[in-house]
Design brief:
Layout (H helix, E strand, L loop, with lengths): L5 E5 L5 E4 L3 E5 L17 E9 L4 E7 L3 E8 L2 E5 L4 E4 L3 E6 L4 E7 L5 E8 L9 E6 L2 H4 L4 E6 L15 E3 L3 E8 L4 E5 L5 E8 L14 E5 L5 E5 L3 E7 L3 E6 L5 E8 L1
Parallel strand pairs: 13-14
Antiparallel strand pairs: 1-20, 2-3, 3-4, 4-11, 5-10, 6-9, 6-11, 7-8, 7-10, 9-12, 13-15, 15-22, 16-21, 17-20, 17-22, 18-19, 18-21
Protein name: Pirin domain-containing protein
Family: Belongs to the pirin family.
C-alpha cells in the first residue's frame, strides 16, 4: 500500500435497514434483500447485522455452509438449536461461534418474555470443507471494562482453545480477531494493528441506547491514528480502516455514557 492510513466512515443511517415487526435489523454489508456493491465485505468480514428479535419469535430452521458465524449477545436471551445436537440459551456476555464448514442447520429464537438484541457476524474461512463445529465463550462486563477483551481469534494461535467451552477467545478459521470493550466517558484505548504488510480494522459502536433507524445518538467515540486520521462515531456507526502494519489505532469515548465498541482486526 502507498501512503498512510485510510478511514472510510459507515454511518448508521446508511446501513441497510428492515423492520419486519418481529425483527428489526441493520446490515452493515450486503445481506438478504439489501445490496450495496460498495459495502459487500471488508477483508474476511462478510456480514455484520445488528438484530433485535421480539419475544417468542425468531429465525426458523435454515442452512449454512462455508461461513464462520458468530453471535455477540448485547441484551436479552437467544435460544440456539442446530443439527449438531447443540441446544443452548445465550445471555449477555455470551459469544457463540459456529464453523458451518460442509453444512449445518440451525434456528435462533428470542428466549423468555423479552426482546433479544445481538450482533450476527459472518466471516469467510481460509479453508474450505471444514468439519462443522460449535463453540461458546463468556465475557463479563468487568472483563470488557475499559480494556480490550479478545473474544474471537484465529484457530491454532497460542492461547486459543478448540474446546467447545473454554476460557479465552473463540476459534475462527479466518484471518480475523475481534476485540470488545465497554469504554467509560473520557477513557481512551489503543491497539497496534499487527497484521503483516497491510492491516485492516473495522470499528463498530453497538446501538445500546435503543432501536433508532434515524440519526445516530447515545454513545460517541473518536477513532484516531498518529498520522492525524480521525473520525467521530456514534451508535450504529462503523469505520473501515486500512493502515500500514504497526499503526496504532486509538479509540476515545468523547460522549457522556459508556460505549460498547467492537474492533475487528483483519488481514
Amino acid at each position: 500500500m502507498s501512503g498512510g492510513t485510510q478511514f472510510a466512515l459507515r454511518s448508521s443511517t446508511e446501513r441497510g435497514h428492515s423492520d419486519h415487526g418481529w425483527l428489526k435489523t441493520f446490515h452493515s454489508f450486503s445481506f438478504a434483500n439489501y445490496s450495496d456493491p460498495k459495502h459487500s465485505e471488508f477483508g474476511s468480514l462478510r456480514v455484520l447485522n445488528e438484530d433485535r428479535v421480539e419475544a417468542r419469535t425468531g429465525f426458523g430452521i435454515h442452512s449454512h455452509r462455508e461461513f464462520e458465524i458468530f453471535s455477540y449477545i448485547v441484551s436479552g436471551e437467544l435460544q440456539h438449536k442446530d443439527s449438531m445436537g447443540n441446544t443452548e440459551v445465550l445471555k449477555r456476555g455470551d459469544l457463540q461461534m459456529t464453523s458451518a464448514g460442509t453444512g449445518i442447520q440451525h434456528s435462533e429464537h428470542a428466549h423468555g418474555d423479552e426482546q433479544v438484541h445481538f450482533l450476527q457476524i459472518w466471516s469467510k474461512p481460509s479453508v474450505a470443507n471444514l468439519k462443522p463445529a460449535y463453540f461458546t465463550r463468556h465475557f463479563t462486563d468487568n472483563e470488557k471494562g475499559d480494556r480490550w477483551a479478545r473474544v474471537v481469534a484465529p484457530a491454532g494461535e497460542e492461547g486459543v482453545s478448540d474446546a467447545r467451552q473454554a476460557l479465552g477467545p473463540a476459534p475462527v478459521h479466518s484471518p480475523l480477531s475481534l476485540y470488545a470493550t465497554l469504554l467509560s466517558p473520557g477513557r481512551c484505548l489503543s491497539r497496534e494493528l499487527s497484521t503483516p504488510a497491510l492491516s485492516k480494522a473495522y470499528v463498530h459502536v453497538v446501538q445500546t441506547s435503543g432501536y433508532n433507524p434515524s440519526a445516530a445518538s447515545g454513545s460517541t467515540i473518536r477513532v484516531s491514528t498518529p498520522d492525524t486520521q480521525n473520525a467521530v462515531l456514534r451508535e450504529g456507526d462503523g469505520l473501515c480502516v486500512t493502515a500500514p502494519d504497526g499503526t496504532t489505532l486509538s479509540v476515545e469515548n468523547i460522549g457522556e455514557r459508556v460505549a460498547e465498541v467492537l474492533l475487528f482486526e483483519l488481514a
